[in-house]
From TrEMBL:
Cited SUPFAM superfamilies: ABC transporter transmembrane region, P-loop containing nucleoside triphosphate hydrolases
Keywords, in A-Z order: ATP-binding, Hydrolase, Membrane, Nucleotide-binding, Transmembrane, Transmembrane helix, Transport
Listed CDD domains: ABC_6TM_MsbA_like (cd18552)
ABC transmembrane type-1 domain sequence ranges: 19-335
Ranges annotated as spanning the membrane: 20-40, 87-116, 177-206, 273-295
EC numbers for this chain: 3.6.3.25
Listed name of the protein: Lipid A export ATP-binding/permease protein MsbA
Keyword Transcription regulation: no
The keyword Lyase belongs to this UniProt entry's keyword annotation: no
Membrane topology designation: Multi-pass membrane protein
A GO CC term attached to the entry: plasma membrane
Organism: Nonlabens tegetincola
Pfam families: ABC_membrane (PF00664), ABC_tran (PF00005)
InterPro entries: AAA+_ATPase (IPR003593), ABC1_TM_dom (IPR011527), ABC1_TM_sf (IPR036640), ABC_transporter-like_ATP-bd (IPR003439), ABC_transporter-like_CS (IPR017871), P-loop_NTPase (IPR027417), Type_1_exporter (IPR039421)
C-alpha cells in the first residue's frame, strides 16, 4: 500500500476531477440504492398490496422510512389517481427516473475520472523519461535497455489498470455498499445483521486466494523486461546474427524467455481467474442463505411482508457487484504493487552525477584543460592510474594506445559521463564538479566512433543542440562537414528522414552528419572519439578533411585508432594500461623509437 500512496501523489494536480468524480459517485450510489427500493412500491401496486389511506402520512424519522414511503404511496393512490393502472404508470415512471439518474451520475463519474487516470499516466511517463535521460551512463551499463522500456510502457500501464482503477472503486463501490446497507437496515435490521455476519467468511477466503499474486506478477514483469531486451538487441544486431548464422541460437534464447513468461502468466491467470467465480459463488451462497432465513421470516413469523422481502433481496443482490469489484481490487493492488515497485525503483534511483548545490555557470573557455592525478575504474580494476595532462586552449592533443589503455575514458570523464574517483579535472582552473553540467557540456562538442543518429530529418539531427537553428546555418554546417554534397541530392534535402539510426545512409555519410552536428554547436572544445576508425579509405579521407576544418581555432582532444589521422597534432600522448608512457609531437615520438614507433610500424605493415 506504500507504493499506492506514492502513486497517489501524482493525482494532486487533478484533484478537481477527483472531487467531481467523488460527488457523482455519491449520487450514483444513492440513486442506485433508491432505484432498487422503488421496486417495492411498484410491487405493492402490481399485486394490489397498497393500503387505502386518506390522510397524508407524517415523517417520523429514517427508522420508519419504508413505512412512510408505503404510506405516502397509499395516500397518493387513494387521493390522486383514478385507477390502479394510472398508479402503476406513475410508480414505473418513478423507477425509470431513478435508474436513469443512477446511470447518468455513473457516466459523469467515469467522465471526470478519465482526466485523472490518464493525466497521472502521462505525468508518470514524463517523469520516468526525464529521469532516464538524466541518469548517468553507468546506470544503463548495468541495466538491460529492454527492461527499462518495459518499466516505462507495460509497468506504467499496469499501474493505470490496477491502482488508478482502484481510485474509482474505493469511493464508488464502498458508497454503493453503505447506501444499500442503510436501506436494508431500514427494511429489516434482523436480515441485515444476519447477512453482515456472513460477509467476513468470504473476505477471509478471498484474501487467502490472493496471497501469492504479487510474486506471480513480479515474475511476469521481470521476464517481460528480459523479453523486450532480447527483442531490442536482435533488431540492433540483425546483420551480425545473420552473418554468423546465429538465427537458431537466438531463436532458442527467445523461445526460452517466452516459455518462462508463458509459464508465469498461466499461473498468474489461474490465480486471477479464481477471483471472479469464487467471489460470485460466495455472493450467490449468501443470497441462498438469505432466501432461506428471510423466507422463514415471511412464511413462518410473518415479521416482514413479501414485497419488502423481494425489495430486500434486490438490494442484497445489488451489494454483490461492488463486493465482487472490491475483491478483484485486492488482486489488482498486488499486481499494481509489483509494477509500481519497478517504476518507482527508477524514479528513486539516486543520480550520482548531477549539479552540486551552489554549482556555478562556466564562462567561455579561455585558458586550459587540466587533469591532475586522475584515478578511475569502471568496476574494480583501475582504467586510469594517477593520470595528469595539460591541454592548452587552441591546441590539438591526440590520445593513442592499444585497446583498453584508457583513451575513451578520458572523453567520458571530460564530459562528466562518469565521475573520477581521485584527482581533479579542471577547465580554466574550475573543477568540473563545481560547475553546472549544462554549462560544462555547452563548452564541448562530441563526435563518437558510432554515429548516433535519430529517426528524424537531416535538419533535426544536425540541429540537435539548437532547435531554432536556421536552414542557412544547417546547410553551412553540412558544407563544412563535407556532407552537403550528398544531402542536396536527397529527395527532400535537409528535410529528408534518414531512417532508424540513419539506416538510409552509408557509414561515411552518417559520420559526416555527426560532424555537422558538432559544427553547428560551435563549441570551443571538440572531442573526437575514434571518429574515423570504422570507415573505409574514401570515407575516411572525406571525414578527415571535414575534421581538419572543424578543428581550426578549437581546442581538440582526439582519441585515435588510425595514427595517420593525428600526425599534425600539437601533442600526442601515448597510453598503456591507464598511464602515459610517451608524449610529444609525431616526429619526436618516432625518434624515441618507443611504443609509438612500434604502433606506427604495425599500422604501416597492416
Amino acid at each position: 500500500m506504500n507504493y499506492f500512496k506514492e502513486i497517489l501523489r501524482y493525482a494532486k494536480p487533478y484533484k478537481t476531477s477527483g472531487i467531481l468524480n467523488i460527488t457523482f459517485n455519491i449520487l450514483f450510489a444513492l440513486f442506485g440504492a433508491l432505484s432498487f427500493v422503488s421496486l417495492i412500491p411498484m410491487l405493492d401496486v402490481l399485486f394490489d398490496k397498497t393500503q387505502a389511506i386518506t390522510e397524508e402520512p407524517v415523517w417520523t424519522g429514517i427508522q420508519n422510512g419504508m413505512d412512510y414511503i408505503k404510506g405516502y404511496l397509499g395516500y397518493y393512490v387513494t387521493t390522486q389517481t383514478e385507477s390502479k393502472e394510472q398508479a402503476l404508470i406513475v410508480v414505473i415512471a418513478l423507477v425509470l427516473s431513478l435508474f436513469f439518474l443512477k446511470n447518468l451520475f455513473g457516466y459523469l463519474g467515469m467522465y471526470f475520472i478519465a482526466y485523472l487516470r490518464n493525466g497521472v499516466l502521462k505525468d508518470i511517463r514524463d517523469d520516468l523519461y526525464a529521469k532516464i535521460i538524466n541518469l548517468p551512463i553507468s546506470y544503463f551499463s548495468e541495466k538491460r535497455k529492454g527492461d527499462v522500456i518495459a518499466r516505462t510502457s507495460a509497468d506504467v500501464l499496469q499501474i493505470q489498470h490496477s491502482f488508478l482503477s482502484i481510485l474509482e472503486l474505493i469511493i464508488k463501490e464502498p458508497l454503493n455498499i453503505i447506501f444499500t446497507l442503510i436501506l436494508m437496515i431500514i427494511l429489516s435490521p434482523q436480515l441485515t445483521i444476519f447477512m453482515i455476519l456472513f460477509l467476513p467468511v468470504s473476505g477471509v477466503l478471498i484474501s487467502r486466494l490472493g496471497k501469492k499474486l504479487k510474486n506471480r506478477s513480479s515474475q511476469v514483469q521481470r521476464e517481460q523486461g528480459y523479453f523486450l531486451s532480447l527483442l531490442e538487441e536482435t533488431l540492433s544486431g540483425l546483420k551480425v546474427i545473420k552473418g554468423f548464422n546465429a538465427e537458431e541460437r537466438l531463436q532458442e534464447t527467445f523461445e526460452s524467455s517466452t516459455q518462462r513468461m508463458n509459464r508465469y502468466a498461466i499461473k498468474l491467470n489461474h490465480r486471477k481467474g479464481l477471483a471472479s467465480p469464487v467471489s460470485e459463488f460466495l455472493g450467490i451462497l449468501m443470497i441462498g442463505v438469505l432466501l432461506w432465513f428471510g423466507g422463514r421470516l415471511v412464511l413462518t413469523e410473518e415479521s416482514i411482508d413479501p414485497t419488502t422481502f423481494i425489495g430486500f433481496m434486490a438490494l442484497a443482490y445489488n451489494i454483490l457487484t461492488p463486493a465482487k469489484a472490491l475483491s478483484k481490487a485486492s488482486y489488482q493492488v498486488k499486481e499494481g504493487n509489483a509494477a509500481a515497485q519497478r517504476v518507482l525503483e527508477i524514479l528513486h534511483t539516486k543520480n550520482e552525477i548531477e549539479d552540486k548545490e551552489g554549482a556555478v555557470e562556466m564562462s567561455a573557455f579561455a585558458k586550459a584543460i587540466q587533469l591532475k592525478n586522475v584515478t578511475f575504474s569502471y568496476v574494480d580494476e583501475p582504467v586510469l592510474k594517477d593520470f595528469s595532462l595539460d591541454i592548452p586552449k587552441g591546441s590539438t592533443v591526440a590520445l593513442v594506445g592499444q585497446s583498453g589503455s584508457g583513451k575513451s575514458t578520458i572523453a567520458n570523464l571530460l564530459t562528466r559521463f562518469y565521475d573520477i574517483e581521485n584527482g581533479t579535472i579542471s577547465i580554466d582552473e574550475h573543477n568540473i564538479k563545481d560547475v553546472s553540467l549544462k554549462s560544462l557540456r555547452d563548452q564541448m562538442a562530441l563526435v563518437t566512433q558510432d554515429s548516433i543518429l535519430f529517426n528524424d530529418t537531416v535538419a533535426a539531427n544536425v540541429a540537435l543542440s539548437d532547435k531554432n537553428a536556421s536552414e542557412e546555418s544547417i546547410i553551412e554546417a553540412l558544407k563544412i562537414a563535407n556532407a552537403w554534397e550528398f544531402v542536396k541530392d536527397l529527395p527532400k534535402g535537409i528535410h529528408t528522414n534518414i531512417g532508424d539510426s540513419g539506416g538510409k545512409l552509408s557509414g561515411g555519410q552518417k559520420q559526416r552528419l555527426s560532424i555537422a552536428r558538432a559544427v553547428l554547436k560551435n563549441a570551443p572544445i571538440l572531442i573526437l572519439d575514434e571518429a574515423t576508425s570504422a570507415l573505409d579509405t574514401e570515407s575516411e579521407r572525406l571525414v578527415q578533411d571535414a575534421l581538419e576544418r572543424v578543428m581550426k581555432n578549437r581546442t581538440s582532444v582526439v582519441i585515435a585508432h588510425r595514427l595517420s589521422t593525428i600526425q599534425n597534432a600539437d601533442h600526442i600522448v601515448v597510453m598503456k594500461k591507464g598511464q602515459i608512457v610517451e608524449q610529444g609531437t609525431h616526429d619526436e615520438l618516432l625518434s624515441k623509437n618507443g611504443l609509438y614507433h612500434t604502433l606506427v610500424e604495425m599500422q604501416s605493415l597492416g
